[in-house]
Automatic annotation (TrEMBL):
Transmembrane intervals: 12-32
Keyword Transmembrane helix attributed: yes
Alphabetically ordered keywords of this record: Membrane, Transmembrane, Transmembrane helix
InterPro entries found in the cross-reference section: Catalase_sf (IPR020835)
Domain of life: Bacteria
Example GO molecular function: heme binding
Protein name: Catalase
């Protein structure tokens, strides 16, 4: 059978492939726009976690140690940035090393997630 000069008996696999590509692209755009599937947002993540933490417990990274010190810049980055932390000789630093477990009594090797948070105050 021919439609518009195209022999459908020979070209149906190519047309089916083109249709499949169009369907996959349409589904990908719909998913990216949030129309398909459950999206994990900050709010849904926080709503799914426990809300009844005893005093002294944290939702995540419950075991850690705080530190304070001084950040000393070598000056090598000063030509790439105008930030005071790189142009002045010393900057006060405070921070916290922690493991990604909400229990403050967890063993140090109980998780492979290790983090460091640091605040530099110029």
């Amino acid at each position: 059978m021919k439609i518009g000069g195209i022999d459908l008996s020979r070209s149906w696999p190519a047309l089916a492939g083109i249709g499949a590509i169009i369907a996959v692209l349409a589904a990908a755009f719909a998913w990216a726009d949030g129309l398909l599937g459950q999206r994990v947002t900050n709010m849904t993540f926080l709503e799914d976690t426990q809300h009844d933490f005893p005093a002294g417990y944290r939702r995540a990274h419950g075991k850690g140690v705080c530190f304070e010190g001084v950040f000393r810049s070598s000056g090598a980055v000063a030509k790439y940035s105008y930030a005071r932390v790189f142009t002045q000789p010393e900057t006060r630093a405070i921070g916290r090393f922690s493991i990604g477990n909400m229990s403050p009594y967890a063993a140090d090797n109980s998780t492979s997630t290790i983090s460091m948070a640091m605040m530099l105050t110029a």
